[in-house]
From TrEMBL:
<dbReference type="GO" id="GO:0005737">
    <property type="term" value="C:cytoplasm"/>
</dbReference>
<protein>
    <submittedName>
        <fullName>FAD-binding oxidoreductase</fullName>
    </submittedName>
</protein>
<dbReference type="Pfam" id="PF01266">
    <property type="entry name" value="DAO"/>
</dbReference>
<feature type="domain" description="FAD dependent oxidoreductase">
    <location>
        <begin position="32"/>
        <end position="385"/>
    </location>
</feature>
<dbReference type="InterPro" id="IPR006076">
    <property type="entry name" value="FAD-dep_OxRdtase"/>
</dbReference>
<dbReference type="InterPro" id="IPR036188">
    <property type="entry name" value="FAD/NAD-bd_sf"/>
</dbReference>
């Protein structure tokens, strides 16, 4: 599967940095835990498990960090594509709040992990401005604000006049929250895996493995040149885990994103907060460490993005227009334009936990707009399931929920 089409921004930020090289598996190895997939989920799982007294192997059929992580727009938010009050209506208020707080705590842990790394991964704490696209969405935005405040989330409600005064554009209403962030996602994944490797996690790139079944206490996997026997296995294959996810209600779609030319400063963009809207599919935007704007949206119910440069350019122009609708004074162009595959679940939550029919086979699939946040708490849940056999929140995201 081609996970993206077009020109990506994040790889250019790594161009002048030393990129670790990992070997192809060409032997027979045994491990306590095999992690399949070297993207965000696999990197976080490997990084957390590296501190345990286990033999860990991470494999990726590509070069690590070059799958969906290189197309990730790097907005880190605890709020979900599905609002808290919508979750409350579908799974009950207690579970909904528990899930949102799990996401909120994962944001804190992502910051702690990012700041503990030896290299700067461009993590920056940000507020989020979530605005009503039109007056029809004001009522549900008020409902969302009331429930957030009821359960202790730091949120401020802004009316139209306040939004225009602070940000310079007109929207009927908005919620301003704290606790979110932005990051360079590809650099983050690369550094997580590098430090896990330094803690004796074995990493093999360009190594596609196939599950061959359970033999004498081990799950057997084969590649073109090697064999792995693992007591426990984590599938962190992202959107390429769709064959499993489809059985649980997952689906793949495509989205578009751009990174603009740099700006000297961000006048009127108060605190360079993350900006997104209530409309579905929604438009969103953030800033970068070198003064660019990354914006995304225009989601479609198709899997692979078009490869025709003219079509991609048209989508890029549409996203650029949305930026200028908010900030008409910004003189920017779309330097990078791409389309990418992303996954969603029916109920808005990720697929994390042990396979209901295969003991010691686990999944960490962060389907949804909060994939990085899901990967963070997913890695913690799986670490505890593997080490202790339990985690207090495993039932929220279990595969057979």
């Amino acid at each position: 599967m081609d996970l993206y089409k077009g020109s990506l921004y994040w790889p250019t930020t790594l161009a002048n940095l030393e990129v670790p090289e990992y070997p192809i598996l060409n032997k027979e190895v045994i491990c306590d835990c095999l992690v399949i997939g070297g993207g965000m989920s696999g990197a976080l799982c490997s990084y957390l498990l590296a501190d345990e007294s286990l033999d860990i192997i991470l494999v990726d059929k590509r070069k690590v960090s070059t799958g969906s992580s290189s197309a990730n727009t790097g907005l880190l938010q605890y709020a979900n594509d599905k609002m808290l009050h919508e979750f409350a209506e579908s799974i009950g208020e207690e579970k909904a709040v528990r899930f949102y707080k799990l996401c909120y705590e994962a944001m804190k842990k992502l910051q702690a992990v990012a700041e503990s790394l030896d290299s700067d991964v461009q993590f920056q704490s940000r507020k989020s401005l979530y605005y009503a696209t039109d007056k029809n969405d004001v009522e549900k935005l008020q409902k969302e604000y009331n429930l957030l405040k009821k359960h202790g989330f730091d949120a401020e409600y802004l009316i139209e006049e306040e939004i225009e005064k602070i940000y310079g554009f007109k929207k009927p209403a908005a919620i301003l929250t704290t606790g979110d962030a932005e990051i360079n996602p590809q650099m983050f994944v690369r550094e997580l895996i590098k430090e896990a490797h330094q803690k004796n996690v074995q990493v093999f790139e360009h190594t596609k493995v196939t599950e061959e079944g359970f033999h004498n206490g081990y799950w057997k996997f084969t590649s073109d040149n090697g064999v792995i026997y693992a007591k426990k296995v984590i599938y962190s294959t992202g959107y390429e885990g769709i064959n499993f996810a489809k059985k649980e209600g997952g689906e793949l779609n495509r989205t578009y994103a751009i990174a603009t030319s740099p700006l000297p400063e961000f006048s009127m963009w108060k605190d360079q907060c993350l900006i997104w809207e209530t409309k579905r599919p929604y438009f969103y935007m953030r800033t970068t460490f070198d003064g660019r704007i990354v914006a995304g949206g225009l989601d479609e119910d198709q899997v692979e993005a078009p490869s025709d440069p003219e079509i991609l350019a048209r989508y890029g122009d549409n996203l650029l227009k949305r930026i200028k609708d908010h900030f008409p004074g910004y003189q920017v162009e779309a330097d990078y334009v791409y389309g990418a595959t992303f996954g969603e679940s029916d109920d808005g939550m990720p697929y994390i936990g042990e396979h209901p029919e295969k003991k010691n086979i686990f999944y960490c699939l962060g389907y949804g707009g909060n994939g990085t946040v899901y990967s963070m708490f997913g890695a913690e849940i799986l670490k505890d399931l593997i080490i202790y056999g339990n985690h207090p929140d495993w039932d929220l995201v279990r595969l057979d929920r």
